[in-house]
Each structure stands twice: as structure tokens, then as C-alpha cells.
């Protein structure tokens, strides 16, 4: 079977912020820019784990289609704001975050009580506004780890808690994943691929970590399709290919060096030769 060349360079270029990056993979065998790019993008958007709110209990509120005295937003809008919390969890179990605010002020994510098991990445997020000194809000936000996007209907676990309001959860830490394939020249060939992946995360993970995690997931999934007895053969073949390529590269370099030395010797001989001086 003919060997398909592998990409040699993977560059991580920083974007405008620490959460943005442009990843360049080149050169890819013709057609493999789209194959690799689309595969990695799908895994990035669907299969990376994260943390998000899954439910909330608000004192004095029995359902989301209501309002709280002196709270500018209705409960539905308040819950939509809570869903935008970006969290980094250090345990796999469900954690309760407490929010207690009194008096006239803008409610922010930083008003949530600190918890050693959960880190809030966007503390400046505005959750709501209390418009009067007599206003207050006491809430318990339930957060947990998950993967992808989970709707209320697809959630198997049901909470037997009074006035518990469930919410859809966006666990994916990826905000943007754009794929672009450009042509690149390799030797005389101009139809090789250059894969450009624009990546933006929510701050709970770096673009490089997200990219590497998605590639690892893909590798594990593809390896599961190969019979166990063939896995060893593949690894041996790869080693052989690498050794063969290294030897060929060394031979080419030696040949080029020899040709260069011979050319320099010829030039020097020509310089020494000249017309004899007239006596």
C-alpha cells in the first residue's frame, strides 16, 4: 500500500486574547485538509467536557414564568443569564453555589459565594438588577460536569427538590471553531493542503488543550475500529516509515553537499585559468 505523507508542521498562533488561537497544520496530503479539519471540528464542538448550571432554586419562586419583587428582569430572563456562567469544576459530583444579594445593585457572577470546588471564569457577568433597597434574591445554583448540549427532556436524573427549576445546559467549552483549507506548494506540486483552524474557547480551557484533547479522542475512536492483532503491525510500519524517510533524507543531504563542493571546485579552477600574459 502506498504511503500517504503526514503533516510536518503544527503551529499555534495566539489571537487577540488568551482564549483565541489560529492553528495551522501543513502540508497535508491533497484532500486531507478537509478530512482532518472537519473531523477535528466536529469533535471540538460535540465531545469536549465542561461544567454548567443544570438547575436553580430561588426563594419565593415556584416556576420560571413569574417575577420577583424589585427584580428588574423576570425569572426566565434571570435564568437565561445564569446559563451564561462559565465554570471550571474540580470534582465530578453536583455542586451547589449560593447567591444572596440584598439592596439596590447590579447582580454579578462575583456575588456568588466562593467555592473551593468550582471556579467562575467570567465573574463580571451581569445576572440581573435589583431596583430597590428593599429588594433581595436568595438562590441556589446547581452545577455539574457534562459534555455537549443537554436539554431538560434528555436528562435522566430528576431532582425531588421543592421549587427546583431545571434548565438546558451548554457544557461545551468551545465558542467558535472555524475551518479553512488553502493550497500550499510542496516541491513541484501545488495542490497540497494547508489546514487553518480558528479556535475560540470560553476561558475554562486553552485552545491548544482543546485541540490536543479532540485529536486524542479521534485517535482512540479510530483505533477501536482496528483488530487488536493489527495495532502492533501498524505501529511497526510507522516506525519503519520514519526510519526509511530519515535515511532517504540523509542520503539526499549528502548528495546535495557533494554536488555543492564539486561546483565550488570547478568555479575555482575556472578562476585560476586565464589567458597567458603577452611577453
SS content category: alpha+beta
CATH class placement of the largest domain: Mainly Beta
Fraction of residues in β-strands: 25-35%
**Per CATH, what is the topology of the largest domain?**
RNA Polymerase Alpha Subunit, Chain A, domain 2
The total of helices stands at: 4
Question: How many strands, what sense, and barrel or not for the largest sheet?
Answer: 4 strands, antiparallel
| Proper CATH architecture of the largest domain | Beta Complex
CATH homologous superfamily designation of the largest domain: DNA-directed RNA polymerase, insert domain
Count of strand segments: 14
- The SSE order reads EEHEHEEEEEEEEEEEHH
Radius of gyration of CA atoms, rounded to a whole number = 30 Å
Description of the structure:
This protein is an alpha+beta fold and 279 residues long. It folds into three domains: 9-47 and 175-225, RNA polymerase, RBP11-like subunit (Gyrase A, domain 2, 2-Layer Sandwich); 50-170, RNA Polymerase Alpha Subunit, Chain A, domain 2 (Beta Complex); 228-269. 30% of the residues lie in helices and 33% in strands. The chain has four helices and 14 strands. The strands form five sheets. Strands 1-2-14-13 form a four-stranded antiparallel sheet. A hairpin with a 2-residue loop joins β13 (174-186) and β14. α1 (32-46) crosses α3. The protein starts with 8 loop residues before the first strand and ends in a 7-residue tail after the last helix.
